[in-house]
Amino acid sequence: MRLLPCFLSRRCGAGLFAGGLLLTLVSSVRAFDPYSSGATWPGSVQTAQIGGSLDNTASSDWWYGCAPTSVGMLLGYYDRNGYNGYAYDNLIPGGVAEVGVSGQWSADSAILRRAIASEGHQRDFYNAATYGYNTGGGIGYGFGESGDDLSTNRSFDCIADFMLTSQDSVGHPNGGTTFAWDMGGLVYPVDAIREYRGQSPSGLCGIEDYIEWTGYSVASLYTESIDSYVAANGHSGGFTLLDYEAEIDAGRPVLLGLNGHMVLGVGYDEGTDLIEIYDTWDTETHTMEWGGIYSPDEYEMVFASVLELAPPNVSVPEAGASALLFGLVGMLWTGARRRCASNRG
Q1: Which tens digits make up the pLDDT trace of 111-141?
Q2: DSSP result, 218-263
Q3: How far apart are the first and last CA of the chain?
């Protein structure tokens, strides 16, 4: 199993956000019984479409981390479209997640941008001079830096908060988020991460935490290495192109972990190995080969993270109604909700 801090830098003069350096890859020995793929799916898959791309997707370029930006687009899709006949319009609080959000902060991009990384998150953990610096001259305002977090009693209120992005207390420099996956291709569900990863930070746990904060819950959430990566490590199995296509057909975008970056899969070209993604560097869709290398920075596809939402409650609370207060030191939960080894740090 490996941990991946996702980082992003900007290519000087290119005008587009480009992939940055993978700063660390941490290997550790698996010390638990394997989970089977069949154990991760509690319900049946509902077919939404066959082939092509998901419509009416939310989109944003990079906003204080490639991982929370990709997750924001993922949840923004459900905010705009619902899932399996249910509405999930509080996943992005404050209105409907926008399409084509790019460049510097503005009132027109406030809903999705605040859900990805709020002003409080930027102030407490990124410490850029002003919120919404994300245009002109690169993302050098604190990107990759550590030791700039501020002491705070602010309640978590955005995706980047819950994913622990940029937070020094768990070893994340600005722009960094950690994901874990099994190199042998076994399904790695969020519950297993909570039980076995101890005090290690987990972006996957943070996704579930944020969803619960907005008043919804998860039916299934897991990470699995893709088949070509598994084969390269001398094993068989893994998440295949057919698995990916089945997710898209079921109306579920797929988070894809590259070697140092994260993107969102929203479609595929039927009969080929091409898939359609948002790469967080602009708001347009792009294509890459399944299991291939994504240019211009030669990011290798490594894993897929798959989310299925549970049916919502009849009455959905306002965002933050069930949120717990966090302090910077240790990032400990103060309630009884099960966490990754019952803490965040």
Answers
A1: 999 999 998 898 899 876 667 654 334 444 6
A2: EEEEEEEEBHHHHHHTT----B-HHHHHHHHHTT--EEEEETTEEE
A3: 20
